[in-house]
Every structure is written in structure tokens, then in C-alpha cells.
Amino acid sequence: MKQFFGILVFGLLSFSSVQAQAKLSDYKYVIVEKQFHFQNEPDEYNLNRMVKYLFNKYGFNAIIEGETLPDDLISNYCLALTSEVKVKGALRTKAMVTLTDCQNNTIYVSPEGITRVKEFDRAYDLSIRKAFENFADLGYRYIPSERVTDMSKSSPASEKSEDSEAEIALLKAEISELKKKEAVKEEVIQEANQEPQLKKGKDVADNTISTAKTPVYYAGEQADSSEIAITDSEGKTVMILLPSGRKDLFLVKDKNAVVYKESGKWFLSETGDGEQLITQIDLKF
Question: In angstroms, what CA-CA distances link 115 with 12, 57, 134, 218?
């Protein structure tokens, strides 16, 4: 009888493991918090980067909050699970990893990782690593799932999907226009090099390229970390940058303008009255 009971328990545990594997395989990405609830600042003790490393170690594609998102994740956020690392305890430090989907359903909860180490940094590190040990047994491998695609249609994020698609289309149009303007910029520079007299007889600004002294701006995080305040040398806020989802390209809040980096230099592109003005800026992060 005891033998039968043992076999039954083993079978149920195996089934739970297989079920977790099947569910986890539906998801392509894992979003890691940039600051856990027990931390005083983002990535304190390098724990957030360590968690990202551990997810990647076990086959997942991990992204820390605030990092650039891949195009397919921007289009369908339900491709990602959101991770939460919980730590508690006094005499013993216990850590647990929870994964939830875009509808806030719990997909996986790890066993507790436990340590008696007293130093906070070592205790957090060891307990989290122990909580991740079970991931090795899951054998995670991403398998595209229609179920996840259908979930995105009914998730709260889908209510904004049309707006997101419109923003992406607008962004692509902006980038295309920027490329055209950059081509004009190169032509103007070449003409200026070949004919120095243009500096006296013709203002290059006619070609929408500003040749004014390069302004120096400084970037600093706002309370809302998705917004970046840009200030001048006197500390005055000149604009607010919003992430575009693409590297080195930002939208300017409340303005028809973008800030982008090309060939190691930053540029501000503003559109108004049917014309576009591109200004080189010295932006310091």
C-alpha cells in the first residue's frame, strides 16, 4: 500500500512538472523587475542582472524592465511572462520566483530557496540561486502557441493595440523621413566642403539643417522612469524624452519631434509648418 501511495505521489509530481513545462513553453520572453520589493534601489547587490542571467542560463530570453523590447513583443506583450522575486525571513532567508502571464494568471511558482547566511547580499544571492535550481529540471524550450496569441486579443493591453500600431506606423514614417533629411544633410555638407563661399553667400539653414552652436543638454531620470528630463546647462528643462522601443531613438513629449543618434552624434528633428529642422545637440546621459 505504501509503495502504491509513493508511486501515486511521484506520478502527480511528474504530471505537475510536465504541465508547468507545457505552459512555460508557450512564452518566448521573461520580464525581470528592475527593482525587487526588498531592494532600496534598482539592481542593488547586482541581483536583477543575476536573475536575468539565471533565466537565460535555463533557456529563457530575459529582459530587464526598461530595456529595449523586440518588435514581436511590442506587437504582442502576451509573449512574455513577468517574473517576481519574493524574499522573506529572519533567522533564515527564503526566496521564491513567480511567473505570471499578461492576464495576471500565475503560470509557475518555484520551490523556496533557503539559506541561513546572515549577510544580506550573500543571503539574497544564495537563496535566489537555490530557488532557480528547479528550473534546470523543467527543460524549458519555447514553442509558439496559438493560445498565447488568442490571449493577447482579450488582455487589457489589447485595448490599446490599435493606438500602439498607429504609433509604430507613425514612428516608421518618422524614421523614413529622417533618412531622407539625412541624405539632404550629407549633400549640403559636401557642397559646403567643395564651395567654401556658401558660408558667406548662402545660409545652410535653407536646407533645414541648423548650423547654430551645438547646445549642450543633460539627461536625468524623472519620477516616472519611462520619461527622461532633458535640461540645459542652467538646469532648465528643455524637453521630455519618451522611449520609442528602438535603441537611440526617443519621442519628444508634447511635440512633433524626435531625438536620435547617428554616427556617434545626437540630433533633434522637429517638424512644423510643413518643414523639418534637424539640429545637432550634445546630449550627455
Answer: 28, 22, 16, 44
191 and 103 in a single domain? The answer is: no
Buried b / exposed e over 92-129, threshold 16 CB at 10 Å, is ebbbbbebbbbeeeeebebebbbbeeeeeeebbbbbbe
Last residue of a domain, one of 105, 130, 154: 154
Q: pLDDT, tens digit, for every residue of 258-284?
A: 999 998 899 999 887 778 889 999 988
**178, 157, 265, 180: which is closest to 215 by C-alpha?**
265
Enter the C-alpha cell of residue 180. Answer: 531622407
Instruction: Give, rounded to a whole angstrom, the gap between the first and last alpha carbons of the chain.
Output: 68
Q: By the 8 A CB rule, do 131 and 124 touch?
A: no
| Separation of alpha carbons 103 and 210, rounded Å | 48
Whether residue 124 sits in one domain with residue 17: yes
User: Which of 154, 173, 188 is where one domain is finished?
Assistant: 154
User: Per the structure block, which three cell numbers stand in for 182?
Assistant: 539625412
Q: Which residues pair with 31 in a beta bridge?
A: 63, 82
| CA–CA distance, 34 with 47 (Å, rounded to integer) | 9
Same domain for 123 and 82: yes
* Backbone φ, ψ for residue 4 (5° rounding): -65, -45
Say what the pTM is: 0.49
Q: Which residue matches cell numbers 516616472?
A: 224
Place of cell 547646445: 215
Can you tell me the distance from the alpha carbon of 52 to that of 136, in angstroms, rounded to the nearest whole number? 15
**CATH number of the domain residue 120 falls in:** 3.40.50
Task: Give the chain's domain count.
Answer: 2
Of 139, 159, 148, 185, the closest CA to residue 72 belongs to 148
The pLDDT tens digits of the residues spanning 159-192 come to 545 556 667 777 777 787 777 767 765 664 554 4
Range of the domain at 240: 162-284
d(CA 98, CA 79): 16
